[in-house]
Design goal:
heterodimer, A: alpha+beta, four-stranded antiparallel beta sheet, 2 helices, 6 strands, 24% helix, B: mainly alpha, 18 helices, elongated
């Protein structure tokens, strides 16, 4: 069983006037998805990244270039991630198929290399 | 509203928790910052909920969801007020000497009293009548503008406009967020609150298509607020119980009122097995609580009519004589062409279709019923029963020119087609 990271991207622009009931329904859908994974012993963790502000650091010759980002530059930004356990990519895709995030953006799945696993 | 929290549907969140909390938080924040800042309260509550939407999907639902939301809303509100007062220091003229809001000990929790005060300000007689229902649903019930629009069959911009007007009235007239001080004043204002709940329920209940789910939720909100009034010593009155009884008994038929095609079913066509027995029982409980005083409100009479129907084994075995008496009482308290229309149904059942037609005579030319399809539809039914097909057909044709939902229209058209076929066959 390997650990996979689900990198969640979305456009970040949802309707700020969204209703209380609708918010609850969306949260409940994520909760249901997570509970399903947990029941199968597949879930590890999730983290949310702060919206609206970020920095991109690059070395530019000998000096550092720090710019605001990525919000101004790209249409979809990473909003957060989940990690889960799966045997392989096929299973990781299978487990992500009913993630409610797909209604709001895309999911990039990457296997996390364990130190020394060599693969 | 059910008394036991339901959690299985929403996975860890009590049904309608966000709506409930939104109402409670707007009420609490409005108490703290003053009714002139109701807009601020609403905005920071919205921000808190949106930030839950950002974070809970990843982190999971916090142990105390309500406390989490309130903490975020409170901090946002204090941030804004701090900015506001910093701005005022720079511009002394703008400083109207309002006291700093103490950050600590702000939120002692008495949601029921907060909500009651909020209801009273939302239903204040100085607020334009058509704004009261919308504002109460928004500020006390936590409904979104979009949902209110769907339930009231209005455009979202129109609903938003009504809410803006209401908030402006609160600000400009400096309406206080407090319960009326004297019993007489409280009674007067309570009547305005009851009227709003009655309207709210009717808007949600009345036929006319739209989003049935949200319409029922609006009805249940009216019931929830009625229960709030009935359970508080300050507002517990017999007419509150009467209104609550009426709403509960009416709402027991909510799911039985439509067939699979979406057509509204009148009382005689409904499957009584689909009436909600639990709501009927609660309705009868409040009906009993409403009896015994000196007051006889229209809600008492309307609840009594609803109780006759709820208690009848079948449409045929309804106590029509009692229903007619009650409509007579109702018409004496509050003349209404629609009550007269409903009375005619009972008259027709008891004394025949001719008597039903005669009973409609008095309202047949009432301008308030000019576009009310039920009037000619009923007349058509009575004519049909009397065997006068041409007149029945003419009445149905008239009904079809009036506004009505499409399943209703289809139903009436079918009826008319059948009539014409039968006439050809003769």
């Amino acid at each position: 069983m390997a650990k996979f990271m689900l990198i969640l991207r979305d456009s970040g622009d949802f309707d700020p006037g969204i209703g209380a009931e609708e918010i609850q329904k969306i949260i409940a859908r994520y909760q249901k998805w997570r509970a399903g994974l947990e029941a199968k012993g597949k879930v590890a963790d999730g983290q949310k990244l702060s919206d609206g502000e970020g920095r991109i650091v690059r070395r530019d010759g000998r000096s550092l270039a720090v710019s605001d980002g990525p919000f101004a530059e790209s249409k979809e930004v990473v909003g957060g991630y989940f990690t889960l356990l799966a045997a392989d990519y096929d299973e990781a895709v299978e487990l992500s198929k009913d993630c409610p995030h797909l209604d709001f953006g895309s999911i990039e799945i990457r296997k996390i290399d364990e130190l020394g696993s060599g693969d | 509203m059910s008394s036991a929290p339901v959690t299985d549907e929403t996975h860890g969140l009590v049904d309608h928790l966000f709506r409930r909390k939104a109402g409670e938080m707007v009420a609490a924040l409005t108490r703290l910052f003053g009714p002139e800042r109701i807009e601020l309260a609403e905005e920071v509550v919205q921000e808190a909920m949106v930030s839950a939407l950002g974070s809970w999907p990843f982190h999971g639902i916090p142990e105390n969801p309500g406390g989490w939301l309130l903490a975020v809303a409170k901090n946002r509100a204090l941030d804004r007020l701090r900015r506001e007062s910093a701005f005022r220091r720079k511009v002394p003229l703008l400083d109207r000497g309002e006291r700093e809001v103490p950050a600590a000990a702000l939120f002692e929790w008495e949601p029921r009293d907060d909500q009651l005060r909020m209801m009273f300000i939302c239903c204040h007689p100085e607020i334009p009548t058509e704004s009261r229902v919308a504002l109460t649903l928004r500020a006390v019930g936590g409904f979104s503008v979009e949902e209110i629009a769907r339930a009231l069959l209005a455009r979202a911009e129109a609903v938003a406009q009504r809410i803006v007007r209401a908030k402006r009235t609160i600000r400009e007239r400096k309406l206080p967020l407090e319960m009326p001080a004297t019993r007489a004043l409280l009674d007067e204002r309570l009547d305005s609150v009851l009227e709003v709940l009655y309207l709210m329920f009717n808007e949600g209940y009345t036929a006319g298509g739209g989003d049935d789910l949200v319409r029922e939720e609006v009805c249940l909100e009216a019931i929830r607020l009625g229960e709030l009034l009935a359970s508080s010593p300050a507002t517990r009155r017999r007419r509150v119980h009467a209104l609550l009884a009426l709403l509960l008994l009416q709402s027991s038929r909510f799911r039985a009122r439509r067939n699979e095609d979406g057509r509204m079913l009148v009382l005689s066509e409904q499957d009584r097995g689909r009436w909600d027995r639990e709501r009927i029982a609660r309705g009868f409980h409040h009906f009993e609580e409403s009896i015994g005083g000196r007051e006889l409100s229209r809600f008492h009479v309307e609840a009594a009519i609803a109780a006759v129907h709820a208690g009848a084994e079948s449409f045929e075995r309804t106590d029509w004589r009692r229903v007619i008496e009650l409509y007579d009482e109702l018409l004496a308290i509050r003349p209404s062409p629609i009550a007269a229309l409903n009375r005619s149904v009972a008259v027709a059942k008891l004394e025949g279709a001719k008597a039903g037609l005669d009973a409609l005579e008095s309202v047949a030319n009432d301008p308030r019923l000019r576009d009310y399809a039920l009037l000619p539809a009923l007349q058509g039914d009575y004519w049909l029963e009397l065997g006068d097909r041409p007149r029945a057909a003419a009445a149905f044709e008239r009904a079809l020119t009036m506004p009505m939902s499409s399943p209703e229209k289809d139903f009436l058209r079918e009826k008319l087609e059948r009539l014409r076929r039968e006439r050809r066959d003769e």
